[in-house]
Amino acid sequence: MKKNTSTSIPLYITFLFVTCLVILTGNAYNAYQNLEKLKTNNDWVEHTWSVKDKLKDINLLIMDSESSLRGYFMSGNEIYLRPWDIAKSKLEDDFKELEKLLRNNPSQIKNLSELRKLYDSKARVFEHGISSYREFGLTGIIELSKVGEGREVMDEIRLLDIIMEKEENEALVARRTNFYNEYKDALFFGTATNSIALLVLILFYRLIYRSFHKQRGIENALKIANDNLESTVLKRTEQLSVLSHHLLNVSENEKAKLARELHDEMGSNLTAISMDISVVTEKLKDKEPELAKQLQRTKRALLDTVDLKRRIIEDLRPSMLDNLGLSASIQHYCEEATAIAGLSYVTDITEDFDTLDPSWSIALFRITQESVNNVIKYAQATEVKISLKRTDKGLWLQILDNGIGIQKDAITKPKAHGILGMRERALLLGGSFSVKPGEKNQGTAIEAFIPFPT
Q1: Are 17 and 155 found together in one domain?
Q2: Which of 125, 241, 394, 426 qualifies as a cystine partner to 150, CB 3.0-4.6 A?
Q3: pTM here?
Q4: Domain Histidine kinase/HSP90-like ATPase: where (predicted)?
Q5: What string of pLDDT tens digits covers the 454 residues of the chain?
Q6: Is the four-CA dihedral 42, 43, 46, 47 of positive or negative sign?
Q7: Measuring CA to CA, which residue among 156, 133, 142, 117 is closest to residue 72?
Q8: What is the DSSP letter of 448?
Q9: Is residue 169 located within the same domain as residue 37?
Q10: Which of 213, 231, 252 is the last residue of a domain?
Q11: Is residue 269 part of a domain?
C-alpha cells in the first residue's frame, strides 16, 4: 500500500503566522487611528486659536475705531474717521468667518449673535456721535458722554469676548483630556499587542530554530549515509572493475585456448579428411566418375569449412596479433571486413607497436573490431578511417566513418552497439572512451585513449 506523504506547512506554524499577522495589522490600524486623532486634536487647537484671533481682531478693530473717533472729535479732521470706515467693512468679514468657525457649537453661535448685537449697538453709538459732532460740535459729544451708553456697550463686548475665549479654552481642554485618555488606552493596547506579537515571534523563532536544527541533523545524517553509500559504491565499483578485468582476461584466455584447440585438433582432422578424400577421389575417378564428382564437391565443402574455421580462429584470437603485432592485425582485419562489406578503408597508423603490452594490444584490437562491425551493420557508410597514434601521454585510437551517424539516445544507452564493452576495455586500462558526431556532424567518431603508466 502506498503511503501518503504531506508536504504542506504544519497547522500550528500557519496558526502562529496568521496570529502574528493579525496582531501586527491591528496594531498598525490602531497606530493609524491614533495619528488621525492626533491630527483632529491639532485641528481643534488651530480652530481655537483661529476663534481667539478673530475675537481679538474684532475687539481691536472696535477699540481702534473708538480711538479714531476721539481723534476726530478733538481735531475735527475727517482723516481720523478712516479706521472706522475700514473697521465697518473688515468687521463684517470677521463676523462671517467667525460664524463659520463656530457653526458646530450652538453655545458659541449664541454668544456670537449677542456679540453681533453689541457691535451693531456700538456702531450706532459711533454713527450717532459723528452725527451729533457734525451738527452740534463738541457740545453734542459732551451730552452723549454724560449718558455713558458707549462705555457700557464696550464693557459688554469685552466681557463677551472673555466668555467666548473661555468656552473655546474649556472645549479645547475637554477635547485634549479625551484625546489623552484615548491615547493612554491606545498606548496600553499597542503595548499589549506588541508584547503578544513579540512573544509570538519568539515562539515562531524557536520553532524555526528547532526545525532548522532538526533539518540540519537530517542533512548530516543523509550526508553520512551518502558518504557511506559512496564509499560502498566505490568499493563495489572497484570490485566490479577487478571482476570485469578478470572476466575479460578469462574470456580472452578461453578464446585463445579455443582457437588453439580448433587450430591444432580440428585443423589436423580436417586436413586428414581432405587428404583421404583426395586419395579416394583419384581411385574412383576412372571406375566411378559420379562418385568421384560427389567427393570433389565434398572436398570443396570441406575446404569452405576450413576457411570458416580459420575465420572463427581469427575472430577468437588473431594469430597475427601474436606474430606480427597490432598494426598488421588491424590492417589485415580491416582489409578482410571491408572487402566483404564493400567498403573502402583508410588506415593512419604511425608505427608497428611490436613491443606493446599484450593487454593493450588485445583491447585496442577489440575496440577496432567492434567499431568496424558497427560501421558495417548500422552506419550505411562508404568509407571508414582507422587512426592509431602514439602521443606524449599515451596511445590514441580513432575510428571515423562517413555514414548516417549514431542517434543521441543510442550514445546515452551504454549497451547499444557494444559501447559498454569498448568503454569497459578502455577504462580498465585507466583510459577514456567517447562516441561523438564526426567531422562537420557527419558520420560517427569513436575515440579511445590509453595513457602510459606514470
Answers
A1: yes
A2: 125
A3: 0.45
A4: 362-453
A5: 444 444 556 676 677 777 777 877 877 777 777 777 777 766 777 777 777 777 787 777 777 777 777 777 777 777 877 877 777 778 788 878 878 877 887 887 887 788 778 777 777 777 777 777 777 676 656 655 554 555 666 677 778 778 877 877 777 777 778 777 777 777 787 788 778 777 877 877 787 778 778 888 888 888 888 888 888 777 776 666 666 666 666 666 676 667 666 666 676 777 777 787 787 887 777 777 788 788 788 878 877 787 777 777 666 666 677 777 888 888 888 888 888 888 999 999 878 787 788 888 888 988 998 899 889 988 889 999 999 998 888 999 999 999 888 777 666 665 555 788 888 888 888 899 999 888 888 889 999 999 988 7
A6: negative
A7: 133
A8: E
A9: yes
A10: 213
A11: no
Read off the C-alpha cell for 243.
Answer: 571482476
33 Cβ contact list (under 8 Å, min separation 6): 186
C-alpha cell at position 273: 579428411
Residue 437 placed within a domain: yes
SS3 assignment, position 449 = strand
- Could you give the CA distance from residue 151 to residue 153 in angstroms, rounded to a whole number? 5
Question: Which residue is it, cell 451730552?
Answer: 143
The C-alpha atoms of residue 384 and residue 333 are separated, in whole angstroms, by 13
Domain of 357: which CATH number? 3.30.565.10
* Residue 397 domain flag: yes
Distance (Å, whole) CA 119 – CA 61: 11
For residue 140 the three cell numbers come to 453734542
Buried b (16+ CB within 10 A) or exposed e, 317-330: bbbbbeeebbbbbb
Residue 44 shares a structural domain with residue 179: yes
Where in the sequence is the domain holding 143, given as residue range(s)?
A: 11-213
Phi, psi of 310 (to 5 degrees): -65, -40
Give residue 404's identity as a one-letter amino acid code: I
Which domain-ending residue is among 213, 230, 255?
A: 213
Residue 424 within a domain: yes
C-alpha cell at 123: 456702531
Scan for cell 578511417, then name that residue: 385
3 state SS for 387-425: EEEECCCEEEEEEEECCCCCCHHHHHCCCHHHHHHHHHH
